[in-house]
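Q: I'm writing up a methods section and want to include an example of the input and output format. Could you take the sequence below and give the corresponding predicted structure tokens, formatted cleanly so I can copy it straight into the document?
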Amino acid sequence: MKDKSIGHCILCHKDDVELSKEHVIPQSMGGYYCINNVCKECNSSILGAKVDPMLINHIVVQLMRYSQKLQGYKGSLPSPFAKPEQSSDGTKYYVTEDKDGKLTPKIQIIPKYKYTENGQVRSFTLPFNVEDRKKADKIVKRILEKNEIDKSKVVKEEKMLQKKVTLKYQFDVPLKDFYLGILKIAYEYTCDCIHNYEKSPNGQQISNILSEANPKRIDEISISNNVKDTIEKIFGDYIDFSASNRHYLFLLQCKDKLICVVNLYRTFCIGFIMNEKIDRTYINNYVLINDIEKHRFEKFSLEELITKVSRLDETSFVFSKKQYKGSQKLKDLDRTNKSYIKNHDGYVLLMNSKYPIGTMPEYLSSLDNKYIKSTVAGNWYTTRYFLPKGVFVMQESTKELIPIDEIQIKSKITKY
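A: Here is the clean output for your methods example:
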């Protein structure tokens, strides 16, 4: 028998409770990212029963998925027009869709009765679509049997009508419900990225709002709807945002604030301030990409994302212009790493005037950020490392120490 997972619940804050798998992004929306720090009771009775449906069943989500044909986890597609609507003459219609996406109103087969003074059925009318004749005949048979009406005494009158039907749909759009469903995603992602976030004052506040499943309390949280362009500008060099069958989560430090941005289907992009004031060394920046079509998700720090999408193509040295000013030798020096002494793993050794001070990767990783500058131009990511005085490479052929001022590493970016 598999052991139960016991621990602390980030929603009710109880310890030593049975935990269960929680889909951060609802599974019916193609969410594959799960956590395991919500108790079984909160998962089923609060999140699954109250909070998630506010997002899954929200008309804005259904309309967007329907218009872009974005199927859910089980391949299903919600229909915002499934509920029958009543026309001006009182007839109820439902809407069907053919393989080409054409919507057609259909009559809902509902009998209309007229009764005698003593309450017996005197007559009834049964509207139906031509293609539903067999279904209508069965309904007529059931009505006659239920009311003990002799079929031989029934006078049947049938009319075929053709009429143009216009259906007008009106939808309630409760935005606070929508925001609460997305806040749940932001909270669980933040808890997964930052240890003990749920115990912080902001974490306690948000978990309390979610536990109550109270959309009215969403006003207590700072929300921004104007973050999509900013996010795509920041990450557009590394992420292909053209696909609508993805969800994105971002956890970022912005000055002294902690912000979580939830981007669903590249359509709904909402930012939440998860902490009003944080230590700048508090967290890394994190990115999560949930791919609905490929049935997977990947979570990265910003550095890991850049590494994943970058392919090292070129390393070059900038030699000391001060020492070689006006010299032909400066032009003749090999700016690549091919002509210089390496260790047994093939890494160029950096030297001081007497002995090695480390391989190039080791030394560059130890530099303070103030000596590093990164730029993106087109599909190229360039990192420049400005070296202190007294750093050299040694030529293999002559064993001469060559002073260097800067190392440039250029990588080609293939967007995720």
